[in-house]
Amino acid sequence: MTTNAAAFAAAQAVIPGGVDSPVRAFGSVGGTPRFMASAQGPYLTDVEGKRYVDLVCSWGPMLLGHQHPAVVEAVHRAVDAGLSFGTSVEGETRLAELIASRVPVERVRFVSTGTEATMTAIRLARGVTGRNLIVKFAGCYHGHSDGLLAAAGSGVATQALPGSAGVTEAAASETIVVDYNSPEALEAVFAEHGESIAAVITEAVPCNMGVVEPGDGFNRFLREITAKHGALLIWDEVLTGFRATATGGWGLFGEVEGWTPDIWCFGKVIGGGMPAAALGGSAEIMDHLAPLGPVYQAGTLSGNPVAMAAGHATLEHADEAVYARVAAASDAIREGLTSALTAAGVDHSIQRAGTLFSVAFGTSADGVKDYADAQGQQVFRHAPFFQSMLASGVYLPPSVFEAWFVSAAHDDAAVQQVLDALPAAAEAAAQA
Ligand code: PMP
């Protein structure tokens, strides 16, 4: 049997940093990243045979838990029929129909990653409006395409600086970054650039600076101000889609308030753990995509039959009972978390939207409203907290700026293991 350390060393010799996605390297928590060998229900097992309650759930997709029998069976059937054909398959239509039965989209275009979904959504918005500028919020993550990496400093709306080496100033200059939860900042941007703004892109609920609750009416305000200025609202549900609620983040806002965004982005749950993502919207907007329209987009593995099968089986089985179980597990863990931190005397806020939540250390009772608040927290308390949980067999997101994910497979035993681990971790956070 190998060890995590040996697996990491071998990976570092052939893969930059030993990882294919930076957060996996445990940069902000220290220690040896775990290399997982298998997963079942709410558990992950690493290459050393150590088992963990999984509170990452592959960063969202595993809504039903690992190896749900219906998903495994659907995938096996798809694999037996062939891995990829480079043609259309009926599974694409079936998954598109299922998505359209849950949220008000008329057309769905499948891609392989959330990054592609938002990148294409932006190209589409520019193609539809004939405008160039994109507005995004500081601290929101929409994948790693050039224009969307611009995160820039906070403060009132600023022309963005490139958020990564290799992003040109030209690409960044077409992205305006605005503080989240600030209608005033957005109004100022529209007053100055209104005629050039193609779209505002937002996470339905920001979950990539920790969870940040949209202020009262903030999402509705985004819908109104974009419509007023002829810009589109790109609604990124890659993370929240079919997870925050049965109808995603939209279920918390648009569905109850009676509005819809223009372009939706999905990922994670709609692939059930396989690479699949999508954008969707009205026929009027979506039909601007090739081959019907002039906005080009394509993909060798787009709509891959195995991915479509995994996503369809996942979404089909995500019924009321699944969301009820996810909510119950999420509530129990959240309550345990806040009482353990309170008992240990650690100031904190639990940030939450639907079944999604995260913790911010050392923040005021008002919690985190924007990126500056998120960055201002006591980040140093997270590493010892994380390491204590890990030692107790709980695998948390290895960054404080991420949501915690639960699944319908998180039964009472798995939840209890998390609850039992929390007091010691809270003590470790207190002593940091
Ligand atoms: N949008 C959001 C809101 C996300 O959370 C993510 C990934 N966490 C993405 C887009 C990018 O998706 P992917 O990693 O599949 O490219």
From TrEMBL:
Keywords for this protein: Cytoplasm, Isomerase, Porphyrin biosynthesis, Pyridoxal phosphate
Transmembrane intervals: none
Catalytic reaction(s) noted: (S)-4-amino-5-oxopentanoate = 5-aminolevulinate
Recorded family membership: Belongs to the class-III pyridoxal-phosphate-dependent aminotransferase family. HemL subfamily.
Cofactor(s) of this protein: pyridoxal 5'-phosphate
Presence of the UniProt keyword Transit peptide in the record: no
EC numbers, comma separated: 5.4.3.8
Protein name, UniProt field: Glutamate-1-semialdehyde 2,1-aminomutase
The organism's taxonomic lineage, starting at the top: Bacteria, Bacillati, Actinomycetota, Actinomycetes, Micrococcales
Residues recorded as bearing N6-(pyridoxal phosphate)lysine in the entry: 268
HAMAP family associated with the record: HemL_aminotrans_3
NCBIfam families per record: hemL, PRK00062.1
Quaternary state and interactors: Homodimer.
Xref: InterPro entries: 4pyrrol_synth_GluAld_NH2Trfase (IPR004639), Aminotrans_3 (IPR005814), PyrdxlP-dep_Trfase (IPR015424), PyrdxlP-dep_Trfase_major (IPR015421), PyrdxlP-dep_Trfase_small (IPR015422)
Provenance organism: Micrococcus lylae
Pathway: Porphyrin-containing compound metabolism; protoporphyrin-IX biosynthesis; 5-aminolevulinate from L-glutamyl-tRNA(Glu): step 2/2
Main location, first listed in the record: cytoplasm
Top-level taxon: Bacteria
Pfam family, one: Aminotran_3
Top-rank EC class of the record's enzyme: isomerase
A GO MF term: glutamate-1-semialdehyde 2,1-aminomutase activity
Locations listed in the record: Cytoplasm
